[in-house]
Amino acid sequence: MSATGVGADGVVVSIPAQSGYLSLCRVNASAIGAMLGFGVDALDDLRLAVTEAVTWSLESAEPGTRMELTVSGVDGTLHFAVVAQASEAASADIDDLASAILGAMVDEFSTELEGGRSRLAFTKSSSSE
Fold first, then answer.
1. Could you give the CA distance from residue 90 to residue 75 in angstroms, rounded to a whole number?
2. Closest residue by Cα to residue 86 from 123, 110, 56, 50
3. Separation of alpha carbons 11 and 33, rounded Å
4. pLDDT interval class at 75 (50, 70, 90)
5. Using an 8 Å Cβ cutoff, are 75 and 48 in contact?
6. Average pLDDT over all residues of the chain
7. CA-based R_g, the chain, Å
8. Ordered structural domains, the chain, with CATH
9. Could you say which of 2, 15, 36, 98 would form a disulfide bridge with 73 (CB–CB 3.0 to 4.6 Å)?
10. What residues are paired with 11 via a beta bridge?
11. Sorting pLDDT into bands at 50, 70 and 90, what band is 93?
12. CA 93 to each of CA 56, 84, 113, 118, 120: distance values in angstroms, whole numbers, following the listed order
């Protein structure tokens, strides 16, 4: 695992594309959310959104590669993105359940598949509790 700080408001973490690292992703996002003043319910929503985002990325990732997690916060809004090297079978589509969960937990989200890389990003405001 490697980590590089990005200013005082965020972090970039590179992890193996393996499900065992999911908790690390949730902890990083929750820590930034707590620094932004997210309440307990908003932090729970954030952890669930991170689980869905990383799970989607793991499903589209090429085995044996790494994922890059970026979490930052500005003015009470958390910005999250996870990028992975996509397998040939990957799709930018997200299943209905994951889409419904993300739609309920965050302010907005997007997925994309371009240049052999998958990306899921979302924002969540501390005022959206």
1. 34
2. 56
3. 12
4. confident
5. no
6. 88
7. 14
8. 2-128 (3.30.565.10)
9. 36
10. 5, 71
11. confident
12. 9, 15, 9, 10, 10
Burial 21-58 (b: 16+ CB within 10 A, else e): beeebbebbbebbbebebeeebbebbbbbbbbbbbbbb
The answer, yes or no, to whether residue 90 has pLDDT greater than 80, is no
How far is 125 from 106, CA to CA, in rounded Å? 8
Q: Could you report the per-residue pLDDT of 104-128, keeping only the tens digit for each?
A: 999 999 999 888 999 999 999 987 6
76 residue type, one letter: G
Q: How far apart are CA 34 and CA 51, in angstroms?
A: 17
Task: Tell me the one-letter amino acid at 26.
Answer: R
Amino acid occupying residue 124: K
User: Does residue 42 register a pLDDT over 60?
Assistant: yes
* DSSP three-state, residue 3: strand
